[in-house]
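Q: Convert this sequence to structure tokens.
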Amino acid sequence: MTTKDVLAKGLADKVGMQGSIVKHEKENGDKVSFVGEIIDHQSGIEYILGILTSEKHGCLKSLNEIEAVGHRVVHGGEKFNSSVLINPDVVKAMVECIDLAPLHNPPNLNGIYAITSLMPETPQVGVFDTAFHQTMPPVAYMYATPYSLYKKYGIRRYGFHGTSHRYVSAKACETLGVDYNTQKIITCHLGNGGSMAAIKNGKSMDTTMGLTPVEGLIMGTRCGDVDAGVLTYIMDKEEISYESVSTLINKHSGLLGISGVSSDMRDIEIEAWDNKNERAQLSLDMYAYRIRKYIGSYAAAMGGVDMLIFTGGVGENGWEMRESICQGLDFLGLEFDKDKNFKVRGKFTVLSKDSSKAKILVVPTNEELMIAEDTVEILEKKK
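A:
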């Protein structure tokens, strides 16, 4: 990979559902969509490979030009602290982590199985969302539940979005010309799912998501931090099962549950500002408050902060939410400049005042590039 040029990008959507579609964008920006039945992940990847090698839409002459495939994998447990070349032992370890990420690891594995079937001689690399956070100390990753449960089931904080947190923190230091290994950085990956990380001297020392992606911030449909007693209380009063509670905290809570409007920040903002919907406004205020609270706690944990970084769909584009979050952070040396922030969307920008001791930035994430670079690095080591 001699350059970082994007030859093509796209998405196979609604796999195994009605209305399946493959969206494809060429290097020149031309976009095309193909609607058809995609019964499983293998057929979806077959569609993609066919488009990439097609004479009209493709960027490759044949599949032989694909030297490797990189996969995002959500959960690697304690087994992986970096990206790895995929082999049968790695696949087995990923299968063992399914209980920790039942919604994510199975489709991640399906992608690996599909490539193995379609391109059996092509090396594959797994890039784990949890790997970056494996540097957390026990004081940060342990729960105050019986230690025997940690030893028996691996119950601890793992954290997610690690590839994004790693990319934006390193990219900010590279762009500003400062040493990554000397900085105290708080990263906010805010989207429909959201997490924050405290990164000290180039290593993750704490993060908001836990054993699963439910813990931490208020998200689109996930509740984030909640008193565990609330869950047992709800189960008792509503007479519902574990499965129902899991659905409640994963799919019916968060911004959607509070506002009653939507899980989409844009819809909620319209309802709150244009229609003066008090519940919608409450959900926005709670969202910002939770993030602001974590900023303070992470600054305390690291003994200060040099950078506060916003990324992800909301972090990169929600300039109004960034302004709401950054109110009152001057005492940490984070002086927010409203004029610099005004309507900034999707581009690297310094949002702090020139007099600010610490930087506030927008850094667009690029998890695909990180996966590609890790894949290249691992292939080079293999040679």
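Residues 278-302 form the longest helix (25 residues).
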